């Protein structure tokens, strides 16, 4: 790897700059990402193109390498932090220009579970993929999930558990949604270290997501499917 | 000499305990309740938990204090009860150990804070040491023989807990959870941990791995420790297989026979403290004890042997063999 840190972002062509931003996201360089976003906007790029082609595409690489055991949590947190820097610039512009929304997710760990590193990662990677994320934090009761579904009107409900003692509570939440006739209004994704696909099926979730990268891929697939349904 | 050091010097292997959460859950601990509250609310259940491990043959058991630090108890508005809950956890342990009729180590369990360290997160070294010191003072006051630091992902946190053990003058042992492609969530490999403990100011009496994916992956981690040539006593506390959901309950698919195989493989790989983690019930411990006592010592198991007996590894590499996927080449910046 060359030791020349003398890259002047503003001197790169659009294509080169986008590739450089993918690299800089991978390396978690927040200031460089913010600079890159500002340059592309100044060059007349739409905020949506900056989001999808520079940031989301870059985070997809980070996600793939996290999924494949090449990057680990510290690197992903740094990348997500850099992404966040870029998003802060883009967010108001995206609203102004009425850019299409990827979808919205409400996420939280279930009652009794206070592990939240995995849940935070999923939130960050989902934001990295352009989703709007409402994070309910830790230790959520059925009531708190239902209240958030009501007030936020998300496409997706994400639940996380890291303890075998708290996993069954996910079923309590899903069963309550069924009782109230709400279950089919949402895509329900579950995750957490002790979980597996079989568990996800057994409790009636739409999918179990092994890690944050898989959560993003799964969310994208389900939202696309949902949008393809007639009259939705 | 402390009891753990004494037993380590006298014995070829020690049987540790199994699961805490799984056992308490089976006694009716409900989802959402911090297990540490039972130390004062249902001490009879905690005594039962400890006694079941001792009766099954454990030479060492962990106290019910895994989440008993201020950072985690705060989430249940119980940050003011750290000393009390840890002291009682150890006192109940003392009561069981002292009646065992043989030497049994009361290991004061210390789990992670759940916070991420600076610069990615907000936890500082000073604050972590303070949090763990408060917890360990309680464990020591209750009569714990050793501080048992477990399920750690970040080496910074492992080291902060070790520093706290020194601050309260407790000997310590510590394990990390290698659950992500053979590494900890924070990317630490088995070889990294083996190397780093030797550079510590007060190294552990024993170090190793707990929890993670299944018994098979845990044994791969053990081989990684052994390959470094470490002479420090090793700890293996693997899960009894993989969790399955069955009629409202979580059930681990590892049988007592499988855990017996695992115990023998661990011993043959040079592990001195062998136990289970999630899903490991008294019947598993009894089977492990029986296997360790009746099966002759074999040679260092190979990765192939481990997979044939315990199941396939969850990833192709664990980051110690140089065969893992490479970080991608950056084009421009270093």
TrEMBL record, chain A:
Which Pfam family is an annotated match for this chain, by its short name? B12-binding_2
The protein's matches in SUPFAM superfamilies, at most eight in alphabetical order, are given as: Cobalamin (vitamin B12)-binding domain, Methionine synthase domain
The record's Gene Ontology cellular component field reads:
cytosol
List keywords of the entry alphabetically: Cobalt, Metal-binding
Gene3D superfamilies the record matches: Cobalamin-binding domain (3.40.50.280), Methionine synthase domain (1.10.1240.10)
Domain named B12-binding: residues: 102-232
Biological process according to GO: homocysteine metabolic process; tetrahydrofolate metabolic process
Gene Ontology MF terms: cobalamin binding; metal ion binding; methionine synthase activity
Where's the B12-binding N-terminal domain?
8-102
CDD domains in the cross-refs: corrinoid_protein_B12-BD
> Which family does this protein fall into?
Belongs to the methylamine corrinoid protein family.
The molecule here is called: Cobalamin-binding protein
What's the source species' lineage? Bacteria, Pseudomonadati, Pseudomonadota, Alphaproteobacteria, Rhodobacterales
From TrEMBL, chain B:
Q: Map out region (Disordered) in residue numbers.
A: 309-334
Name the Pfam families for this protein.
Answer: S-methyl_trans
Instruction: Write the Enzyme Commission number(s) for this entry.
Output: 2.1.1.5
GO molecular function terms noted in the UniProt entry: betaine-homocysteine S-methyltransferase activity; zinc ion binding
The Swiss-Prot or TrEMBL record lists the needed cofactor(s) as: Zn(2+)
Hcy-binding domain mapped to chain residues: 2-292
Q: Supply the enzyme class, top level.
A: transferase
Keywords attached to this Swiss-Prot or TrEMBL record, sorted alphabetically, are: Metal-binding, Methyltransferase, Transferase, Zinc
Q: Name one GO biological process term.
A: methylation
> Which of this chain's residues are annotated to bind Zn(2+)?
211, 277-278
| UniProt keyword annotation of Metal-binding present | yes
Keyword Transferase attached: yes
Q: Which superkingdom heads the taxonomic lineage of this protein's source?
A: Bacteria
Q: Which PROSITE patterns match?
A: HCY
What's noted on cofactor binding?
A: Binds 1 zinc ion per subunit.
Q: What is this protein called?
A: Betaine--homocysteine S-methyltransferase
Q: Name the source organism.
A: Stagnihabitans tardus
